[in-house]
Amino acid sequence: MLTRIDHIGIACFDLDRTVEFYRATYGFEVFHSEVNEEQGVREAMLRINGTDDGGASYLQLLEPTREDSAVGKWLAKNGEGVHHIAFGTADVDGDAAAIRDQGVRVLYDEPRTGSMGSRITFLHPKDCHGVLTELVTSAPPTASHGD
Ligand code: MC0
C-alpha cells in the first residue's frame, strides 16, 4: 500500500546553487546527501515533514554525474524542473508486482538501491499519464545521515 509522498525529484544543473536557493528562500536544510553512481546522480534530500506511517517526505535535488544518465538526458531536453514523484510503501516488491499486473511497465525486475539505503523501482512515465513515478521502501532508520 502506498502511504505517503516519499519525495519529489527535481533535476538541476548545479546542486550546490540549487540547495542554496531552497535554504535561502524557504529555510529547508540538507538532511542527507550522496552520490548514486548506478543512477548517475549527485543528490541532496531536504526533509520537509514526518508522516503518520513513521516515514517522511522530502524534496530530492538531483544533479547528473554524466550526460547519458536518466537525469542528464532529461535535463538536456527539458531544462530544470520536476523530474519524478515517489510514493512510499512498506512493500515495494508487492506493490510493484500488483501494479505490473495492471499493465503498467515497471522498469526494474528487482528493486535497486536508492537514497539512504532505500529500495526503489520506477514506473514508465508513458503508462502514468506523463509522470515518471518511483516506488520507495525506506531503509530502517539509522543514527546518522550524511556523506
Ligand atoms: C523521459 N520521459 C519522461 C521522463 N523521462 N517523461 C516524464 N518524466 C520524465 N522524467 C519521456 C520522454 O520525454 C520521452 O517521451 C520518453 O519518455 C522516452 O524518453 P527518452 O528520453 O527516450 O529516455 P529513455 O526511454 O531512454 O528513458 C526514459 C526512462 C528513464 C523513464 C525509461 O529515464 C529511466 O529509466 N528512468 C528511471 C531512472 C531514473 O530516472 N533515475 C534518476 C533518478 P517522447 O514523447 O519524447 O517519446 S534516481 C533517484 O531518484 C534515486 C537516487 C532515488 O530516488 O533514490
From TrEMBL:
Family: Belongs to the methylmalonyl-CoA epimerase family.
InterPro entries: Glyas_Bleomycin-R_OHBP_Dase (IPR029068), MeMalonyl-CoA_epimerase (IPR017515), MMCE/EMCE_epimerase (IPR051785), VOC_core (IPR037523)
Span of domain VOC: 4-138
GO-annotated molecular function: metal ion binding; methylmalonyl-CoA epimerase activity
EC number per UniProt: 5.1.99.1
Name under which the protein is recorded: Methylmalonyl-CoA epimerase
Single GO BP term: L-methylmalonyl-CoA metabolic process
Domain of life the protein comes from: Bacteria
Gene that specifies this protein: mce
The entry's keywords: Isomerase, Metal-binding
Pfam families: Glyoxalase_4
Residues forming coiled coils: none
